Amino acid sequence: MHSKILILDFGSQVTQLIARRVRDAGVFSEVHPYDVSDEFIKNYGAAGIILSGGPNSVTEGDTPRAPLAVFEAGVPVLGICYGMQTMAEQLGGKVENGLVREFGYAEVRARSHTALLKDIHDFVTPEGHGMLKVWMSHGDKVNEMPPGFKLMASTDNCPIAAMADEDRRFYAVQFHPEVTHTVQGEAIIGRFVHDICGCQSDWNMPDYIAEAVAAIRAQVGSDEVILGLSGGVDSSVAAALIHRAIGDQLTCVFVDHGLLRQDEGKMVMEMFANNLGVKVIHVDATAQFMGHLTGVTDPEAKRKIIGREFVEVFQAESAKLSNAKWLAQGTIYPDVIESAGKGKKGSHTIKSHHNVGGLPDTLNLKLLEPLRELFKDEVRKLGVALGLPHGMVYRHPFPGPGLGVRILGEVKKEFADLLRKADAIFIEELRTNFVDPNAEKPVSWYDATSQAFAVFLPVKSVGVMGDGRTYDYVVALRAVQTQDFMTAHWAHLPHELLGKVSNRIINEVRGINRVVYDISGKPPATIEWE
Ligand SMILES: Nc1ncnc2c1ncn2[C@@H]1O[C@H](COP(=O)(O)OP(=O)(O)OP(=O)(O)O)[C@@H](O)[C@H]1O
Ligand SMILES: O=c1[nH]c(=O)c2[nH+]cn([C@@H]3O[C@H](COP(=O)(O)O)[C@@H](O)[C@H]3O)c2[nH]1
Ligand SMILES: NC(=O)CC[C@H](N)C(=O)O
Ligand SMILES: [Mg+2]
């Protein structure tokens, strides 16, 4: 058994980054909602508990509090931001609605006398104070520490920026050590989980594979499993892992909804059936999906229809097998978190990702989701460890609803055909142009971006080609760089490259006469346009 850290989520947008940092330290962690029962905490067996930040204010009535069992479990507790505030309030300190709000970069004077921050700092002032460069995001602040606590860090705006009761091993910081902008964040989280909670670094891929394989075998027994295979990273890795566990008991179903990229179907079939020896059924459901999408323009409605039809196909295919009891999916941790946000107080649903939450109660298959605990880059490492080709594992993600969310408004076959061509040109150019062609190991623009694609805009604009007037559609190019797809920057592609892509699309794709480049970050935009 691994030692594990329990993270209680108070609704922060960056809670999953806490889990990320803990995993980076080689320690397993899970996020659960703040309102789990005392019973849950007692039985969980955490080596330590972290309380996340959150949008609420403890100064208002009826806002979230940590279960009391957290403070009675006898294990170290780290409160972050709201987590610090609720810890202070629950243990007898005071929190006030701050007059000065702090968002963004701050320098914190860190006192070196606690186990958490000892000898961790970014620089030392002439007066000899150790300073941390951190990221803050709060309006409230602790103005009176609970009995037993001592001051651990301060800023001018926030005199109690961190506090600790070392006898009980309770620590709290107002800043966010989980974000990369907090330079020593990794060191601080590492200090907490290793030195204070006593966890070993025992979360690694080879062990994980052996454990996951054993768990899948135990769970599935002699049943058959069907898996929705998209050719994307997540479902491919899930397929390889499950195949390793149960071999031919696994049947993959690859659904062509008519909204795939150019040559995608051919590629996926070749890769899996021919190279990996996995059973794959190719279902051409174009007519079914396109039929139901006719006349539908609302993005959420489109997503729901696509999700529903996926389930229809999976159900129909499983009925053809003799003993299919499980539906496997490449659901990964961020999918789970984003969907969990749906019922969560104070969190908004931005988009309905089709693979989680969209499954009906009537689904007569149990869910098998072996990647549920992993982040994308962990999934990639797992894929490599399972022997999948580099090119497949490092592909850009492609959303389940496919081109359906990249054709704005109503989806039509004519639009999908134009978009496929434009997208293929863009991707080809990204693959064959390099950031620094003279580098020892040149990196292509495809590898230098996290996701890139073309979007079809159903608006027509006037152009002139070969002295003739054109009145054709517009394609937008999107390329982003991101760590975790939660926030993203638009990629600064060279103008020459953009020019070349634009020329090629307009020349080669009849029906497109204008190309634009999307320069919006996430937030405020999202990566996909719908
Ligand atoms: N065309 C498809 N046929 C069958 N299943 C699909 C298809 N598209 C998506 N799915 C299912 O939906 C899940 C979610 O899709 P998602 O795009 O998040 O993951 P992925 O395609 O496996 O990986 P990536 O994020 O790299 O694209 C997939 O893991 C897969 O189980
Ligand atoms: O499997 C998926 N099903 C979906 O319904 C879906 N919607 C968006 N995405 C992908 O998620 C990442 C973040 O996308 P957004 O910024 O557009 O929300 C990006 O990588 C998107 O491509 C999806 N993946
Ligand atoms: N990021 C946070 O956890 C913020 C906590 C609280 N809502 C505040 O503004 O102080
Ligand atoms: Mg995908």
UniProtKB/TrEMBL annotation:
Its EC number(s): 6.3.5.2
Enzymatic class: ligase
PROSITE patterns, A to Z: GATASE_TYPE_1, GMPS_ATP_PPASE
Gene Ontology molecular function: GMP synthase (glutamine-hydrolyzing) activity
Pfam families linked: GATase, GMP_synt_C, NAD_synthase
Cited function: Catalyzes the synthesis of GMP from XMP.
Protein name stated in the entry: GMP synthase [glutamine-hydrolyzing]
